[in-house]
Amino acid sequence: MLRLTLIFCVLIIIGGCQKVENDLDNTIAFYSLKEFNTTGQGFAIDESKVKIGNELIIEYEDLISYDVETHTFTISEALAKKMNDTKLDNPYYQKPFALAIGKEIVYTGYFWSLFSSLSCDWTTAYPLGDHLVIRLGYPGQAGLPITDRRNDIRVLNILMRDGKLVE
User: Fold this and answer.
1) Dihedral through CA 92, CA 32, CA 112, CA 123, nearest 10?
2) What is the pTM of this model?
């Protein structure tokens, strides 16, 4: 009888526990791309075949705020220092990324340099002091239109929830 009572108590405790969601599922971050193809001769990424990598390039904590008008993140001082490094081997330059909620891709792009002489026909993210500017193309949009998902409502809701949204 004691054994049955213990089993019953354990089942009640287990059944009463709620699933705790992973914090990463409720935040945004920049991830590396494990596999991707471009759609032509330019940089446009075929997002139907993208596989997100495990490398977390920019963590949510490093995103201080986001301005919906300028499509600009204010980033942490430590991240800004790394991203603004002008050495030739800067690990961010031309690195493809996915901005994702958890591991669900919202949009893809490339980290770029404001001083690059190479143009890009896809979404770019380039550091400017303590800001990360997200643009459609570099130095601007040319050629085929780029779908603008920078102000995706899911991303804005997360940023608003956490007081990181500048309107």
Assistant:
1) -170
2) 0.82
